[in-house]
Each structure stands twice: as C-alpha cells, then as structure tokens.
Amino acid sequence: MAEENLLTDEFLRQLINVGEVDIVVGLSTHNNAKTIGPVIGAIQAGILKCFPRERVVIINADGGSQDDTTELVQNASIDDLRRDYKVHALRTLHCISVRYGRIPDPGIALQTILAGADLLRAKTCVIISPDSTTIEPDWLQRLAGPSYYDNLDLVCPIYRRQRFEGALVRDLLYPMTRSIYGSRIREPYGSEFAVSGRLIADFLSNGIMNQDWGRMGPEISITILALTGKYRVCQSFLGAKRASSRGHDVVAAVRRTVGALFASLDGNFPFWSTITGSQPVPTLGTATELTQESSRINRKHLLETFASGVAQLGEVLSSILSLPLLSELQRIAALGVDEFDYPAELWTRTVFEFAASYHKSTINRDHIIQALVPLYRGRSLTFLIENRNGSEQDIETREESLCADFERQKPYLLEIWADRK
Amino acid sequence: MREIIVNELTQAFQQMARDIAHYLPRLVVMAVIALVGWLIAYLLKFLVRSLLRLTKFSKLSENAGATQLLHQAALPSSTELVSRLVFWIAWAGFVLLGASVLGIAGLDEYISRFFFFLPRLFAALIILFFGLVAASFFSRAALLAAVNANFRSSRMLSTSVRFIIVIFALSMAFEVVGVAEQTMLIAFATVFGAAMLGMAIAFGLGGQDLARKFLEKKLAPHNRDEREDELSPL
Questions:
Q1: CA-based nearest distance B130→chain A, Å
Q2: pLDDT tens, residue by residue, A144-154
Q3: CATH architecture of B119-216
Q4: What structural domains and CATH numbers belong to chain A?
C-alpha cells in the first residue's frame, strides 16, 4: 500500500498536532481490550522512567477492533503513573489511535506505524505487541536505548522462555536465518523490536511491502532488510515472554515466518549465496535464558500428526522432497514414541529441500509451506524428547549443534537451488 | 445389337472422360490444399509444441494431475497430445476445405458443421483442462488443511473435492460441445446430489459425537490442557 494511502486525513491531522518527536512507540491491535491496559501502562511507565526528557508518541494502528481497544488506548491516563514513579515527563505524552481497516493486517499496521514515525522524523521507533502481558517498563529502555543513544538500526529481543516455547524459532527460524544471512540473531521474528529512522525510511521506500516476503511477514522482513542492507544490528535481553494465544495457530505462524523467510531468498540470492559461516551479534544482557517450568505436551499426539502427515501427504511431499529423503521420513514415521528420532542433519536437509522447492514453485507455494507443518511437528517431538530432562546448557549445546548443521549443509542448498536433486 | 453395346460403352467412357476432365483439376486443387494444409498443420504443431514447452505446460499439466491420467491411459505427454491434436484438427480442416472444392452435393453442410463445431471443441477442452487444474489445486488444499487440522479422513475429503470438481468440469465441457446435454445435466445433478446426501447422512449418523465435540470445542471456553498438545511455535 502506498504511503499516501496509509496516512489518512484524520491520521495526518493527529500527527501534525504532535509535531516532530524523538521516539515513537507503535502498537498494532485487534480486539486486545483484555491485555492492552497493562501494556499501555508499562509503556507509559517506561517513558516516564527512561525517557522523561524526550518527545515520545504512542501510535496505535487498529485493525477494526470490536471491543474497547482503541478507547482504552486513547483514554489511558498517565497521571497515576506519575504518582507511582515520582517522575514528571517534561513533555506531553501524546497517544494517537488510527483505524487502518476493518480486517486486521499486520503488514498494513506496521507500515502505518512506520509511516507515522517517518513523518514525525522519529529517531527510533519501538514496536510492542499488545499481547505482551509480561512487559515491564524497562523493556522500553532496553529496546529504544541502543537505537536512540548508540545509533543502532535494529534492536531485536531476547526473551526468557519456558523451555519448550518458541519451538519454531529454535528449530528453524534462528538456525536458518543464521546460516543464510550469516548473523546470529536469536529472535529474527520478534514481536517487540526497535528500528532506527534510517532503517524505517529504507523499509518504506524500497517497496518491500510490495514483495511477497514483505506482505507475508512484515516483522521478519525488517530483520532481513537490516541484515542484507548491512545495518547495525544488536539484540537486547528483555525478560520473560509468554506465548500469545495467536501463536498457537501453527499453520499461520509457519506461513508468516517461514513463508516470508523462504520468499526472501529469491531476491536476496546474490547476497546470501556468498556467505559462509555466521557472525555473533552484539548482545545486551543475557544471551538466552530458559525456565524450568513443566509443560504438558502429548507426545503421542505429536507423533500421530507427524506420521499421518507423512502418510497422507506422500504425493505432495514427493513433489517437494528428494526420494531418499522422503523414504527416510517414511521410515521415521513408522517408529514408536520411545525410539522416535528426527535427527538434526535430516531436518536441515528437509528445510533446505523445502526452500529449494519453494524457489522453483514445484507446486503452489502456499501448499509447500503448509506441507512443512506436519514435519515441523515431528521435529518438535524430537526436540521435546531430547530436552525433556536436559539442563539449560544441554539445550543450548543441541541448539548450537543444529545451527552448525544448517551452516555446514548450506552448500547443499546452493546445489539444489540451481538444479534440484 | 453389337453396335448398340459399343455405342453405349463409348458414351459411358466419354462421359467418364468428361467427368474426370471435370473433376481432375478440382482433385488436383484438393490435393494441393491438403498438401499445403499438411505443411501448415505441421508448422502449427511445431509452433504449439515449442510454445507449450516454453510455457512449461507439462509442469502445469503435471500439477493438474492430467499427466498421471494420460500415463495411466498409455497416451503420450500432454504437450505432445495437444500439439498432435492441433495438427490433426488443422489438417482435417484443410482436407475438408479441399473436399468442398469438389462440389459434392450435401458435403458443404457437413463441412460448415465441422468448422462451427471447432470453437466449441476448443472451449470444451479448455474448460476440461482448467477444471482438472482447479480440481488438483483445491483437492490438495483440502488435503493439507485437513491433515494440519488432524482430520482423520483427509484423503477422503480431498478425493471428494477432486471428484466433485471433475464431474462439474466434465458436465460443463459436454454442455459446451452439445453432446448428451440433458443426460450429462441429469447425471451431474444425480451424482452431486447423491454425494451431498450421502455425506450429510454419514455425518449425521456417524459423526454425532464428532459434531458435539466440534461445537463444544468452538463454543466452550478453551481448556488449557487441550492447548498444551501443541508446542508454542513463536
């Protein structure tokens, strides 16, 4: 969508009333009345505590909420917080809410916020998820600080997670982004992050949102743009993160993240094809932290979904995967829960063959992404079995080993990219 | 008597000679048209084949499931089949055009019917092809959605979707060609109605518990334990 279409007259009027700002905090909402109150409170507290002298505005892009989300945002009062923190902001804290459409669209929401930030000439824009119930005021400092004070262009989050949460990030997004784009960003798809004014201008001007990967995963596309554009990137430890209810829709999550990542490979081939290995990214705070909370996952159910997926999607998988790999998957699918093992090396090859098939569009691209879901469930089961009784160090060692596999097998991806085996 | 026979034979031969003299140039014209037609048809076949290869028609046909059907019927590849079809239709058209030069009574009507039928035949073939493409796409989409939703009879659902779309495309194609319109319409309505009724009865009788569970899951508040069946991906 063109920038002039994003900036409606009403939105422009509100932006003009605000004038230039230093920092924009963006919230993309849709029916978040249950959680938005504490999130707004934490953001305001963070502004009072960490940026009392800066000109800050909160921009809420709403996708047609039917509850009181927008009213709650607009009516959020900062007076109570001032008393709690005994700090007075030297500037007026503005809060803008704009409805960009009746149907939620993360891409348009993000574009709207970034277009607003660009127009207000903000030095930094922080994006916060309205589902982040564990948010603390310090998150604002940890995200905006490196960009605002140290001129970093992208600040990605690192969370303290429950050991089995974020399986897709740990099993695919992190290792693949690392091996492809050569940077060790733990959360390439973060629901919270900060971007600099320079990166925003680049993002809005180079038409990423007109490309498949931008439309599919606007959040991950910012990370990819920062990496391919050689912007200064860092990651910052935020604290505990609880998976949002929306994160449980695996197919949607895979589409939004893996789909966007696969789609980004086409246009960025000259960049990533020459990269070997990976480089660490400056990290503020702990690199990674896992909690020992127990979780009740039905392993048998995971195995059933994997086995039935492999059996029923045989014809679809045969047009995506090479014959030896498919045979190996069929062998694994016949194993019981106790002896089940979807090894890292095989998983890496699976992902790379999917990426190559996606590139060649062997079948409809969305179907390729959907066909990956049962296999991801199988790999999740192995992750669960391997790490059930392991320490945080064990999990980290296995993660590192998986990443090494992705990096080692990258030549295989390059080989099948041109001529599929 | 002898003279009469000789006279009749002479007249017959003279008439035959006149007829041959009358038809020979036309036959030559027909042969020339057929020969030129053959060359043009061959050229068309070559062009169509190159165009189809360039546009990766075989891949599209493979995705549509047409290649598999042709293979099972021991027929050549879809690209080859389409280019051969173009050749034979084009050449047959030229041969009939040549035949019209002969001026045989009643033949003109059949020839004009043939040319009138050609666009309908092409339209029917296009409908059938895109019907197969749609059937393949939607059946695969249904299969993937059902597998990812842990639906037990994913294959059956997918096959049903394919079957319904293929039947629909076939009935449309036959209607366009004008072959057994009423029969096809009735057959389609019967098959479609029977399939729907069968599914409704099967779901009603066999899926009472499933329907109850589905509604409970959709309408009742989510239970945390049920959600934990899936590892949180993000």
A1: 15
A2: 999 999 999 99
A3: Orthogonal Bundle (1.10)
A4: 3-291 (3.90.550.10), 299-418 (no CATH)
